[in-house]
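Below is how a single chain appears once it has passed through the pipeline. First comes the sequence as given, then the structure the pipeline wrote out for it. We keep one example in the README because the format questions we get most often are answered faster by looking than by reading.
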Amino acid sequence: MLTYKHKSATVFEFNPDANESQIVHAKNGRIPMHQFNHNWFTSRGQRVACKINAGFFNTSDLKNTHIGLVCTDGGFEEGWPTSAYECWLDKSNIMHVENIRDHPDNRGSIRGRFKWAITLGYSLVLNGKKDIRGQTGFPTGKTWRTLWGQKADKTIVLVIADNIDANESADLMLELGCVRAISADGGGSSQMEIDGQVIRETTRPLGTMLLVFAKPGEKVAKVQKKSSNEIVKDFIPVGRKNRPGLAMTPRFITIHDTGNTGTGADAKAHATYLNHPNTGVSWHYTTDSNQIIQHLPTNENGWHAGDGYSGTGNRQSIGIEKCINRDGDFNATVQITQWLVANLMKEHNIPIENVVQHNRWSGKNCPQTLRSQQNGWTNFIKGVIEKYNELFSTSKPDLYRVRVAGKQIGAYREQQSIVNEVIKALNSNEKLIEIEKV
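Resulting structure:
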């Protein structure tokens, strides 16, 4: 199981062969998101890893009349008796998306074959292609959307995203690798919780939710997708004392910690701090476990290094502050920062030896988190180099031809493959072994 940000979306992925999921239906009227649970799973030590709203219901009252059908635990729960299923998970953990127009009555054909099912989800992706259809057409306009999909490897993808329409919803699910997907709901009903953290909750109570369960001791991995490393520009206003506007050609990249472990002390919070008219310090970027915010152009200096008005740190280096808020994921923040540093090195032709700690300029114990870890700074720099090579290196390892007794066995770039062939030849008592660079 993993979760990450992608554009305006929060994404949760899980393997249905490894993690159980079930639709839970509120029995006596709609209820708030936090009240949804499934006693059978939780009594066996499986906690709820993700909650996301499921299907449509009558919002004119609180009786929770479901529009279409909802089926849980393999059985019919509630709904219009003539409706067909549009999204259902079979017992082999394949998530089916079937359009009502193509399958006017599939209730009998799938009876006994499903784990859960809902209707009135608008199709977005079918057979790996955009296919936007529904019984009454996709709701128009941009709003919050609840999106469900499945990849070819059976990974189920659950998403809530803000301010997107039908086409953008389909494009998003295709970007995330889905071969079939639906819009399960939207607007004020789009609500989600991951590993106890509320992603979005509104005042609207819900009738049904899809719950995903973690095995005892299992954690939800928080990762950063490369495609979501978008840099948000939130520049300090021109003329403020912390935006001096002095021209700069950057020769260094300086890494800091924010020093703020408080809940909510993320990149956005620090952008708000820098934009206050009384703030005197400034730097170029803040990174957290979900985003990068840029505060200054890289051709202007900032006051971040503590080495004075004319100091090299202040006047010739790009300042990056890493967030260390307790509700963030520090490892994800490090990975995002390494990605940013690699890109800045490329853009400004800055060598790796000029990626430095704040400590270099002022002697301050910063970045404290990396400095306090065994090999923390060394591992950070190693990660920057690996990311740089991943993004920008076009060279390939040398190719070597291996001959045994005059006969070519193969040509390899990997050292271990060459070693394996040599060992194999020696074990066969071959005396003539040749290795030639191609």
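The first helix runs from residue 39 to 42.

See the next section for the split statistics.
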